[in-house]
Amino acid sequence: MQGDLKENANGALSNQFISAALSTDTANITLNWGITYQRIEGFGAFAGRATPFFESPKRDSIMKQLWGADGLQLNMVRGEVMYTYPFNKSAGTVTIQPAGTSIDMDVASAAYQALTSDQKAQLSQLWILKKLKERYQVPIMFASTWTPPLSMKNNTSQESAKNFNGLNYSCCSTDFANYVAGFAKAYQNEGINFYGISPSNEPENVFSDWAASYWTASHLGEFISNNLRPALNAKGLNTMKIISSENAAWGTANSFLSGMDKSNVDILAGHGYVEIGDLILGKRGLNQNPQTWNYATGNRPVWMTEASDDSGVYDNTMTGGLKLAVNMHKFLAECNVNAYVYWLGMLAIRNNESLICTNADGSLDYPKTYDVMGQYSRFVHAGYYRFNSALANNATLKVSAWKDPVTGKFSVVVVNPGSSETRTRIKLAGFASSQLTSFLTADNTTAHWQQSAPVTPQADGSFVVVVPSASVITFTGTAQ
User: Fold this and answer.
1) Is 211 left (phi over 0), alpha (psi -120 to 50) or beta?
2) Average pLDDT estimate for 165-179
3) Is 128 helix (H, G, I), strand (E, B) or coil?
4) Each residue of 140-158: pLDDT tens digit?
5) What are phi and psi of 162, to 5 degrees?
6) 278 falls in which pLDDT band (50, 70, 90)?
7) Glycosyl hydrolase family 30 TIM-barrel domain location, by residue (predicted)?
8) Which of 103, 217, 348, 354 could form a disulfide with 127, with the two C-beta atoms 3.0–4.6 Å apart?
9) Edge-to-edge strands of the sheet including 422-429?
């Protein structure tokens, strides 16, 4: 990474090459420890498309690479309130595990193969969440609801929200609230205490064929306050947070939530796909310029709960990786979100919607999006705060800085979507550090996060570093 900055026998940069580097600086970053922004709650992925995950012979490795210490170190997982669970309306109970099954049953067994696709999905999700708790103690598990059971919808034969198909308010608001609460209670009985639950997923999506439910902002707010919160409380789930509204586009979520009763919404959420205007023009994929919401959030946490590149041909290079890097930077450093959750953790095929993919021969493929996700999730932990990182003399880099106020550890994530290597001076204001270590993701890196030798400060306490072209690089250190 820094081969052009020659080191002497002791690992220190020679004065000759320091002078050369300083004379050609093309970016300056000033980190101001005393100016602090939002607190990070974490990073995660969706555990849905659960059946191929459960059936994969590499499922243990996949789980480790997503949530384990050697992998992305995710601390969040998003599940699904499936609409196909058996529901005892009079008792308000939901059955989340098919009768006669075990989460450890052999996927090749006749008993498993005899299950319906819905039952396999139900069992698979339960296995994923229970193993995540058992193996990795994942602290933040939450679930989103794509659609109520079909019997509770206006069109009882239609999974999607096409033709504005949604919850039948005249008959079924209480039943649906009890269904969601019953799902959460059933999981609690299995040892899974959901941190939060969302009654909707992309409530404005009346175009797509997949499972969805149409909501207006007023109806969703009323349902949460009048039905869902009371139903959760009645099950003893008073501390479970309600997440809403999870619109597909960030700008749509802004409009939707601004006109909604949010008095019982604990976490405000939206997704990271292109805005509706782009979608109408045939564009898809990751939003490259989400805008900060223009209404007061009331100091509630703001989560980005789903994003991926659904725009086309599989791309496991830095071209795809940089799309995610820009998206993550914009949401975290400009829209001030407290949590970022990717769409799919794994797929049994090669697809841009997943962090880990499967090749035709069954081997796993790790696209650069996996590595980019790790540039944040591995080095910006829950409890870190974003602090000021002022960029000067450069219009290409995207920089965010994060600190642990308890330990003094800090990370600086730098995205360079440009075609030129950038010599950069990092200045420290209000603190000092004895060294920086960098971790690089680029097309030519073979390790997921290529680690450098530590860099020591100059006489004035600043650091001279090189940010390669088309890369994401994180610098870590400890404040003194």
Assistant:
1) beta
2) 98
3) helix
4) 999 999 999 999 999 999 9
5) -60, 150
6) confident
7) 56-242
8) 103
9) 450-451, 437-441, 471-478, 409-416, 398-403, 385-392, 27-39, 422-429, 463-467
Q: Does position 10 have pLDDT exceeding 60, yes or no?
A: no
- Give the Cα separation of 457 and 453 in Å (integer): 13
What's the whole-model pTM score?
0.94
Select from 410, 440, 441 the least CA-distant residue to 426. 410
Measured CA to CA, the distance from residue 158 to residue 314 in angstroms comes to 31
Query: What local confidence, expressed as pLDDT, does residue 25 receive?
Result: 61
Contact, 459 vs 392, CB < 8 A?
A: no
* Residue written as token pair 């990795």: 136
Domains of the chain from N-terminus onward: 15-38+385-478 (2.60.40.1180), 41-377 (3.20.20.80)
Helix (H/G/I), strand (E/B), else coil: 172: helix
Q: Is 4 helix (H, G, I), strand (E, B) or coil?
A: coil
Nearest to 367 by CA among 398, 323, 330, 304: 323
Give per-residue pLDDT as tens, 300-326: 999 999 999 998 899 999 999 999 999
pLDDT over 60 (residue 1): no
DSSP assignment letter at 408: -
Whole-angstrom CA distances from 49 to 102, 244, 303, 465 are 19, 22, 21, 42
The CA distance from 116 to 120, in Å, is 6
Task: Report the alpha-carbon distance of residue 193 to residue 239 in Å, rounded.
Answer: 10
* 24 within 8 A of 56, measured Cβ to Cβ: no
Give φ, ψ of 248 to 5 degrees.
-65, -35
CA contacts within 13 A on the Cβ side of 235:
26
347-387 pLDDT tens trace: 999 999 999 999 999 999 999 999 999 999 999 999 999 99
